[in-house]
Amino acid sequence: MDLYNENLARFKRAVALEPTDRVPFIPVANAYLAKSEGILLKDYINDFELNCDTCLKAAESAGGWDGTQNDLFSPWLLPGQWLSTVYMPGAELGDDEMWQVIEKENMLASDYEDIINNGFEGFYQRILMEKCGDPDKHLVPFFEYLPTAMQRFKDAGIPCISGFNLVLPFEMFCGGRSLENFFVDLMDKPDLVEEAMKIVMDFQMKKYDEMLAAAKPIGVWIGGWRTAPYMLSMDVWKRFAWPYFKQFAELVISHGVTPIFHLDSNWDRGLEYFREMPAKMCIMGLDSKTDIRLAKKTVGDMMCILGDVPAELLAFGTPEAVSDHSTALIRDIGPEGYILASGCDVPSNGKKENIKAMREAALKYIY
Questions:
Q1: 290: Cβ contacts below 8 Å, ≥ 6 apart
Q2: Exposure of 169 by Cβ count < 10 A (0-12 exposed, 13-18 middle, 19+ buried)?
């Protein structure tokens, strides 16, 4: 427990923008873990003791992690987030092929009115069962093993800083309708989409309030993938994305939990809005598409920044290049208020020696 408490305290000081003995190294990885340890993806996603073993071995082989962003993973979690069909290794795909989100029109334009008139829960369960392969059935062994995995990580001294994901209505509708159809909906029937979003949000807020109270996680992801202002006009983004981010963040903070804004894609145009968040309580996680130095300049005085060693560097770069890049991030973004990590997930073809180089950069940097 001493190592766990030491790592947890280091994480909390980073969130509070306080000096630490060194910058925390807290990656997130899924398929990479299996590939790096020679485990077939089919086995990794179906045997959760093996899944957890693999995670812990990969952390040890990198020289130890100061934390993780998830302590167990299943791609069957993805349909519930995006209302999308997912092809799985060992089923629709080869035994060691990467799971794939299949984006198609699982949700019809007429479903907005169904949600408004009849509520979201029944529609949600119907879509998951009829269109997405009934993920709840496949997730039973995941949730049965999850408490064991959480304890094993704790015993290994590795805090899990993200207990689960809070998914915005925008992300659900975009995945369910498919991107092109949904973006047309935003132009053709914005009021209908917004009314349906509010129904979804009422459902999500109640569900997440109960989950936060029961699980008491250290932090949670508030995900932003398709919601990035990079692909949206600022008027659309301010109407259909940003208010929901704020609602989720306020709910999370009310439970004493750290919101981790997991921001994939380019968020340069939206960075200033995050100054509306309470100071020294949130994390902005970036994936190397947003200008992390602009983020530091814009919100670095009031929000911890996490990231963002690029996937392509971890897959194709040398350990020396990864070390140099990581050191520059620690110098320019940290050392206070910074957590060193990959940009989003470590890619499945990441190199072991490159993950170790990130870890060593965090250990060696003197300030």
A1: 263, 265, 266, 267, 268, 271, 308
A2: buried
User: How high is the pLDDT of residue 224?
Assistant: 84
Dihedral (Cα; 349, 142, 251, 258), 10-degree rounding = -50
Q: Tell me the fold of 2-364.
A: TIM Barrel (3.20.20)
Model confidence over 14-44: pLDDT tens digits? 999 999 999 999 999 999 999 999 999 999 9
pLDDT at 365: 80
Record the pTM.
0.96
Three-state secondary structure of 198-219: HHHHHHHHHHHHHHHHHHCCCE
Domain ranges (residues) in the chain: 2-364
For the record, the structure tokens of 296 come out as: 């530091």
- Is the distance from CB of 59 to CB of 49 less than 8 angstroms? no
Measured CA to CA, the distance from residue 251 to residue 318 in angstroms comes to: 42
* Residue 15 confidence (pLDDT): 98
pLDDT score, position 1: 74
| Dihedral Cα 72, 73, 76, 82, nearest 10 deg | 120
DSSP of 234-257: HHHHHHHTHHHHHHHHHHHHHTT-
* Structure tokens, 65: 């992690």
**Per-residue confidence (pLDDT) for residue 88, from 0 to 100:** 98
173 and 197 Cβ atoms separated by less than 8 Å: yes
Name the nearest CA neighbour of 124 among 185, 135, 194, 246: 135
341 phi and psi angles, rounded to 5 deg: -160, 170
**Pairing assessment for the beta strands 100-102 and 85-87 based on DSSP bridges:** antiparallel
- And the tokens for 259? 């919101």
Residues in the chain where the model's pLDDT stays below 50: none
| Cβ 63 vs Cβ 22: under 8 Å | no
If one counts every other C-beta atom within 10 angstroms of the C-beta of residue 34, the result is 25
Bridge partners (DSSP) listed for residue 260: 221, 283
pLDDT of 223: 87
Give the Cα separation of 129 and 125 in Å (integer).
6
Contact 242, 274 (CB under 8 A): no
Cα 17 to chain center, whole Å?
21
Backbone angles phi, psi at 284, to 5 degrees: -110, 110
